[in-house]
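User: Can you predict the 3D structure for this chain?
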Amino acid sequence: MVSLKVSQSGKLLIKKARIQKIEQAKKERIEALGKIEKAWDMDEIFLREASKILEPRQNWDNAEIFAVAPATWKRFKEARQPIKADTFKAFCQVLNLKWENVAENELEHRKNLSEAPDISNFYGRTQELAELQQWLVQEHCRLVVIHGIGGIGKSALARHLVDKIADKYDYLIWLSLTSAPPFLEILIKLVHFLSKGEKEEGDISQLIQYLNNYRCLIVLDGWEEITDNESEDYANYSAFVDRVAKEVHRSSLLLLSRTRTPNIEILEGKLVRLKRLGALAYEEATEILKAEGISATDSELKEFSKRYSNPWILKRIAQKVQNVSPDISDFLENTSVFVDDVITQFLDQQFQELSKAETTLIYWVALRRNSATWHQLVQDSHQFFSYNQLFKTLDDLISKHSFIIKNIEDITTIYILDPVVLKYTTERFVQENFQEIFQVINSKNINDFELFITHNFITEHPEDEELNQEQMRRIVKPIQKMLLAELHIQERGIEEELRQVLSLLKDKGLSQGYGYRNISYLIAVCEKL
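Assistant: Here is the predicted structure, written as structure tokens:
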């Protein structure tokens, strides 16, 4: 069955012709009836006239169901999917358009980027682009995965890459997995596209055959959205990726994901490559800032890009600065790291993907204020994590989620968070501790795994006085102020309530743990008021 798809230029022709046709129909309707009925569906004009062309022997004047479905008309005018050739030509005839001027040509038919992001400007990532191009074009890798924390620029990089290498492929399609579509839906789209609209269904084996017959590049954007290990769809997606990676064919699959899943990691080899996308280099961040209209000295641009190394966050903060004041020096001088509600929601979504153990470990790293060594993390977590659990969780946060960054200073390795993530994590930690302590105060009941029991607010390194002062300022005092404000509203004494929490801890045999110390820190701050 031959099908045709509207080109982008054809879409504009359709829009113009529709408007003219509707205006003409309105005029005729008014002349006949003296008015336009509110319930009159103008799309019926096109469906009725197309039906007369497709099935001329029937009388369609008073019909309520037509020879062509409204959904097909919608697909035609929105230029998103191919439709049957005879229906396509009928619609064009109704609009007084030549179908040849509306349909995609052969080259357009082989390229579908309708679900790809529109990237107007792209900066940097020269090394990453060269490496990815080498893997796909020269080495003919069957599977390439770009992974990294949200906002780091995976989709922008992939779109720029695709535009550069599009002419190397017979077929090119970009599909978004953001809405977690069923695998069957994606499979049908791929088979339909690669068969030039002749097939409406198929299986993985048939799809692999197309990948062998032609050189195709398939991009699946948002792989993390379908990685639910218990779902049948995830099993089907995984089976597809596994076969693409292992079977002989001429094509490539490019996956974009916030996380690196185990089933993908197992496949890594000569023809399966994984690329973790990290923070922007200073020079690349500077290009973005200048493009956003930020004017500053080299040292100011360097400081700005150091604080905001995530491209999405960098652009957002740069636009905020431009909206309020173009004086970047004033902004840098009066803020440490700026995090607004949108950035908070953005990071909230990514934290929700983490396990309890991963969140717990991120808090330990945040407490160390970007100075945590392996031995310090072992010390902080030894009561709650086994060595193996700590090792695996830290590896996942570095390699799988890209939340924690391994930084080598001299011969010492320290584990750090991006400045924005550090600020967000600290504020989240403070808020959760306040809520947990306040709940204990109200319920007079305590569990063994509240954050204030598992995490030491002030780490045990008296020689690092500067770190301890910062922990007091950023963690202990904010929690104390939140409790004071809440308890003051209820006219209850904060010290008395906190001492009762100490008694609860003693009763549970927790007088030697972090919890007892943390509550004591809060009481000490109250006594200084």
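The first strand starts at residue 3 and ends at 4. The radius of gyration is 30 Å.
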